[in-house]
Amino acid sequence: MQLTRRQQEIYQVLRDNLEHYQQPPTFEELCGLLGLKSRGSLHKHIQALVAAGLVEPMGGLKRGIRLVDPEVEEGIPYLGRIAAGRPIEAIPQGEPMQIPDQLLGKGPCYVLQVAGDSMIEAGIQDGDYVVIEQQAQAQNGDIVVALIRNEEATLKRIEQRPGEVILHPANPSMSAMVYPTQEVRIQGVLRGLLRSYL
Amino acid sequence: MQLTRRQQEIYQVLRDNLEHYQQPPTFEELCGLLGLKSRGSLHKHIQALVAAGLVEPMGGLKRGIRLVDPEVEEGIPYLGRIAAGRPIEAIPQGEPMQIPDQLLGKGPCYVLQVAGDSMIEAGIQDGDYVVIEQQAQAQNGDIVVALIRNEEATLKRIEQRPGEVILHPANPSMSAMVYPTQEVRIQGVLRGLLRSYL
DNA sequence: TAGAATAGAGAACAACCGGAGAACAAATCA
DNA sequence: TGATTTGTTCTCCGGTTGTTCTCTATTCTA
User: Fold this and answer.
1) Structure pTM?
2) Nearest nucleotide, C1' to the C-alpha of A57?
């Protein structure tokens, strides 16, 4: 469902407002905030947002605009598995995982499940979940998700030299790979790791 | 259950009031405090708070308004560090950590921080956090927290034989230790692991 | 330029919120 | 025990707030 310009604007105001006050605003307050004089006009826009699934339908409840659904779904999207030698098998509907704050970077993060033992000596095992902070730069020595020739994604320790990039596995039976700089795109940096023994 | 504006206000007053006085207030006093003239009106609000699970239902008692115990902080207690060769440095006020459900066992759990590299080949590094499910039994091959002679606690892979217990480190430079069964007490089994790269 | 889509005004309506107060029952006190 | 306080239930009321209309102005598109 496509939002009109005004609807996006109103949705933005709603989100901003929810960060500042715990009580949802009333239509009257919102009208003032938006420069509207008619609650009816506002109601039309809210209905559009409800239809778009961005606002909780307030079934008959009268007091205060019902809480917007501000994507409060706590959690970090789980995007799929990453293997050496294959692109990320993206799961479109990445269901969120609950990740402790300590493992989160400042920027947007996502979770991948590691397939393969290529980083075994760095303490990263087959089946572990890794928390990746999405960013395009990394420092030498960081463990990154690297996309090679837009084909395959892999989790390796990175070493960037003029004109070339070396991806070091942490497995004695595998050797480092060297690529021209332009063939490697950094997709994120390892920030945390989770493992379940259940 | 969504609280209305007035209900939140009243709940706040209740909390403030209970901090200052031992005795819960009577409806009449509360009415005065809130500027109400009718006990009936107040009662309606209190009922809403009871329905929301914030106030204990008072079965006809006088001065019976009591708050429900504020849901204790979700989380698993962080108890301290565990090193090979030393007892757990217990932190009495273990501040809770937020642990994803996937890493929790069925029983009570706690979190320790690993000190030392004795389990490095099992992918457990110095500084990692381990989630331990509290139990006294384990299966051979489990990684457990073992208390030796009531003196030192250690994280090792366990092998139980008739009359003796073998604790296997996962580090080529260390060797397994053998103890009489009665000298080793299992304090818990490894269920999860977290690592932060920040 | 006609028509659709977007945006707003304003009136009328209905449901809800918050409160008043009476009547009653149960607990507490004298 | 009797009187008083206190909690409970009930009805009623008015203002607020969400909803539904209709009508108008503007912008974009065919």
Assistant:
1) 0.66
2) D18
